[in-house]
Amino acid sequence: ELTVLGKAQEFFQICDLEGKGFVTRQDMQRLHPELPLSLEELEKVFVTLDADGNGSLTPKEFITGFSQFLLEQIALKNDMVQPSEGETAFPVRYEETMSGDEDEEFQFSNLMNRLGAAKVLDDETDVKQLWLQLRKEEPHLLSNFEEFLVRIFSQLQEADNEKNELECALKKKIAAYDEEIQHLYEEMEQQIKKEKEQFLLKDTERFQSHSQELECKLLSKEQELEQLVQKQKRLEHQCTQLLSGKEETKVENTKLKLTNQELLRDLERTSHELSLAQQQLQVLQEEASRLHEEKEMEVYRVTETLQREKSGLLKQLDFLR
């Protein structure tokens, strides 16, 4: 069954050469050279797999149905399974037999295939661990993370395409330079040969004069060749600088995004701490106000007591007098 699933995934990639993420009726016809089925039979298979009738097949619909179709074809071929009356063409749905880990593995593999990660990533372990962690702990962030991956891989793919285009253009220029140089050498050899044949018929002085002219021309051609080589080296250096600059810019953009996120988290934490501090300050102010009022009341009571004692003492003093 694993082999059949792998074959079904391979067929899906054959149908979806553009990387759309789904398969149409026209895409299904691409399997005609791969399978012993006519175009009409492939059309019937597509209609059977398209249970919702929307005219397209998702990776899960295609791989689930087509795997079951291949298993039934193998069983019929070996006379091992005889389908009973009323049995549907696809009685067992793949998602019912697929375990959770296999489903996650399939979805991640399908995501990487759609993004073309194999072309730009040597190791998908870190991305996979982060994807699984978000899927389990923060599922509401999974779509944002996948959109981020789409943008990143799109930019990496564009950079890779630009690199390939630059390399191809450089190879073409190098080939053109080599062809031009070879042509110059051939012209020089033919011209030298022709001039030598002519000089053999003339006097030595004239032969020497022409020989010097030819040497000057040869020297000039050699200088042109050296200039072409230097130009080629400059182009290679510019190509390397462009590629290095793009990589550095992408790394710097990623660092800036991470720094921005950290600053936002710090701002939120500081705002929260400020709010707590304001609440504590208000509580302290209320407590200070209450203590001040109590102190004033205590002073008033003490003053009144002293006043009464003073009045009593004055009365006693008058009595003693």
UniProtKB/TrEMBL annotation:
Keyword terms: Calcium, Coiled coil, Metal-binding
Gene3D superfamilies according to UniProt: EF-hand
Annotated SMART domains: EFh
Coiled coil: 149-294
Domain EF-hand intervals: 37-72
Any GO molecular function: calcium ion binding
Endpoints of the signal sequence: none
SUPFAM superfamilies: EF-hand
Domain of life from the UniProt record: Eukaryota
InterPro entries in the cross-refs: EF-hand-dom_pair (IPR011992), EF_Hand_1_Ca_BS (IPR018247), EF_hand_dom (IPR002048)
Pfam family name, one: EF-hand_7
Keyword Nucleotide-binding appears in the UniProt entry: no
Protein name: EFC4B protein
Chain's gene name: Cracr2a
